[in-house]
Design goal:
The protein is α+β, with helices and mostly antiparallel strands. Helix content is about 30%, strand content about 25%.
Length: about 180
Amino acid sequence: MLSDSSRQFLLETARQAACAAARGERFSPPDHPPPETLAPHGAFVTLHVRGELRGCIGTFDDSRPLLETVADMARSAATRDPRFDPLSPDEFGGLGVEISVLSPRQAIHSIGEITVGRDGLMVEWMGWRGVLLPQVAAEYNWTPHEFLEATCRKAGFRLEDLRGRLPHMEIFQAEIFHDAAFTG
């Protein structure tokens, strides 16, 4: 668990990185970060503007310091999420930021191993890959089966097309925190 001060530092870093990217500016993380933000972790950054999803990008790569990962994912969420146009400066006033710091993934072999609200899910099948964060299934009150179906749809295939087989599945957990402007 990150300290409150480290969480606030990461949220502010993500906000500054997203806004810099939207303005087309370079961004360097602040000097003297809390030491725990320098530990390597994968992370997702989710952006909302006035309560609406505006971008969400992440990586499981845990070879870089969390601070760098968060800054990079915030820039990408602001400008490279293929579902949205790039964030614009006139949206900064309503911008909310959520960060999900990821645990390592663990392979599972049955739907019964998924705990909704605790686990995120990654599926792979025939080169298609989809990921949904733990908070998504909890937000929609999905069953584990519904969570798997939605993750498969996000990957670009339908679970029913697998004719009773299961895709490769991995679960993970996340430490999730957001700023006061985030409404998700």
